[in-house]
Specification:
Blueprint lengths: L1 H36 L3 E2 L11 H4 L3 E8 L5 E7 L2 E12 L4 E10 L16 E10 L22 H8 L4 E8 L22 H30 L2
Parallel strand pairs: 1-2, 5-7
Antiparallel strand pairs: 2-4, 2-6, 3-4, 4-5, 6-7
Helix pairs in contact: 1-4
Length: 230
């Protein structure tokens, strides 16, 4: 009986915790949606970099203006709805004098080399609108980045900036929106914003387990009373 009571309390506590997690996740999703659809604001400059965080800034709708440095672009592995290929990470030297890595979008493997898509190597002043993303230092595809071999599985801003010798590089990158590039490549606007939200299912499961144990205990107690009856 004691074990049953412990299980009931434990399962009920886990259910309450999942309800709280559901409220947190629902609020987070609403917050991210608001950021994505808000008017674009200027990307944070050096004075703001220390205060840029995942919780407050991930998926902010931002705008930045400057000149692309195509000779320093970096290709990072990508698996998208359009198939496997690469993200084209290109430094943009801003009018304010600092550099932002811009994920200009997806290209298939056959277009990995910049010279294979010359129309997309836009020159002169460019205005880019997109979503602020936080650096990804842990690698991806179950493998770490290998800067020495120029093999990139994730968008590690700091490592890419060091490898490319970028000055005053922002600690974040920007996913460009779906505005078409000349020649059609890279293809922007492919950011996937998805937050798994199974907390309600988990909560129901834990509460159901607590109820099941309680019912089983009740049945067992009734059976015991009957057995003790003369």
């Amino acid at each position: 009986m004691v074990l049953g009571a412990v299980l009931i309390v434990g399962f009920f506590t886990l259910g309450v915790w999942q309800v709280r997690r559901l409220a947190w996740k629902t609020a987070l999703i609403a917050q991210i949606e608001a950021r994505i659809h808000a008017p674009a604001s200027p990307a944070p400059g050096p004075a703001q970099w220390p205060s840029v965080t995942r919780e407050r800034d991930q998926y902010r709708h931002v705008v930045v203006q400057g000149v692309f440095q195509h000779d320093r672009e970096t290709m990072t592995q990508a698996v998208t709805a359009a198939g496997p290929g690469f993200w084209v990470m290109t430094p943009l030297r801003t009018d304010a004098g600092f550099t932002i890595l811009v994920n200009r979008g997806f290209v298939p493997s056959r277009l990995r080399a910049g010279e294979s898509r010359p129309l997309g190597l836009v020159r002169g002043e460019q205005r880019v609108t997109g979503l602020l993303r936080i650096t990804e230092p842990r690698g991806g595809f179950l493998r770490a980045n290998d800067p020495e071999r120029d093999a990139w599985r994730s968008r590690d801003v700091h490592a890419i900036a060091a490898r490319r010798g970028l000055r005053e590089a922002a600690p974040y990158f920007v996913d460009a929106d779906a505005t078409p590039n000349p020649g059609g490549w890279p293809r922007g606007g492919m950011t996937v914003v998805r937050f798994p939200n199974s907390h309600l299912v988990y909560a129901i499961t834990w509460f159901a387990l607590a109820l099941g144990v309680a019912v089983a205990l009740g049945v067992a107690q009734r059976a015991q009373r009957r057995g003790d009856a003369p």
